[in-house]
Amino acid sequence: MDLTDKLINFATTLEGVQMDHPFGKFPDYIVFRHQSTGKWFGLIVSVEKDKLGIEGEGQVPLVNVKADPEIISILKKSKGYYPAYHMNKNHWISVALNGAVAEKQLFYLLKESYDLTNG
């Protein structure tokens, strides 16, 4: 099971989570939202490496999560973290799902995003 699948499985353990594919042009993109409010707390996408400033060809699977701006400024200095792809870069961050970031850290960040957007 890859990190994307593990993250999806983890998200289903959180209370009141709805997952959907709202982008017809990108059917593999997955949005995690609070069922009660419709607010997003995560977005799984695949982005071309050059859009992230990474050399080489191909795509990188990412999850966008909401986080405290101070935490974002620290995380962006580490491998596997990027300015949020197509989201507010002050409040969201993109995290690689390619093994650059530990599974436990991914789960923590998704849960934090869930908590920040709940309500």
Molecular structure report:
InterPro entries: YjbR (IPR007351), YjbR-like_sf (IPR038056), YjbR/MT2646/Rv2570-like (IPR058532). This is MmcQ family protein. The protein is built from three helices and six strands. It is an alpha+beta fold. The chain has one domain: Aspartate Aminotransferase, domain 1 (Alpha-Beta Complex). The N and C termini lie far apart (32 Å). The mean pLDDT is 94.
**How many angstroms separate the termini?**
32 Å
Nearest-integer average pLDDT:
94
Could you spell the SSE succession in H and E letters?
HEEEEHEEH
> What is the number of beta strands?
6
CATH class: Alpha Beta
| Strand residue content | 25-35%
Q: Strand count, sense and closure of the main sheet? A: 6 strands, antiparallel
- The secondary structure category is alpha+beta
Task: Kindly summarize this structure in a few lines.
This is MmcQ family protein. The protein has 119 residues and is α+β, with helices and mostly antiparallel strands.
Entry keywords:
six-stranded antiparallel sheet, globular, Aspartate Aminotransferase, domain 1, alpha+beta, 119 residues, 29% strand, YjbR-like_sf
